[in-house]
Amino acid sequence: MALVTAACAGQGGDAGATPTATPTETPSPTASPAPTATSDDLEDASCDDRQGGDPNNFPDFVEVSIESEGDTEKVEFRFEPEGDPDDAPQWFVGFTDQLITDGEGAPVDVAGEAFVSISFMARGVDLSGEEFEPIYTGPTEFTPGLSTVLEVAQTGDFEGLVSWGIGLSSEACFVVEARPDRIILEFPAA
User: Fold this and answer.
1) 78, 65 Cβ separation under 8 angstroms
2) Is residue 34 one of the residues assigned to a domain?
3) What is the Cα–Cα distance from 66 to 161, expressed in whole angstroms?
4) Which of 34, 37, 40, 51 would suit a FRET pair with 135, their CA atoms being 20 to 30 Å apart?
5) What pTM, to 2 d.p., does this model score?
């Protein structure tokens, strides 16, 4: 959401026009209140929406991996950046009541009682030739059978914004580690 807002910034109307009404913000239908932390949370975990990254790092999106290590379940998105960037590509992570597809806004059915959406600016498809060539060629849906992370599904690859949804067995605060070549979300195992 923040990425779309940033992209639209600066598009204004007539600077000399007098506004007739003060616009009000309408809450997003997919926004949900942040879950409450529990004693099982990871150190430095947060349930707050988070964002970061550098819009100048626009890498190829190449891989998703999911693993369980002790009391932690990790979902990792890997990139192949151009050059040697200092920061991850621009990204946004947060809880949502309903996962939806990019562009269409259609609901996405993902197993779970709580849902996390992650979006990042990257190339999942090469549009430079006459025919589109996929860069990310892996699965678009994972059911890893873990205690917290139940399902991970791609929800979009639209205009340089790649999005995925993560279905959790319950609301669980998480840690985000963002590097130039990967973004890792860590959840506590249930």
Assistant:
1) yes
2) no
3) 21
4) 51
5) 0.79
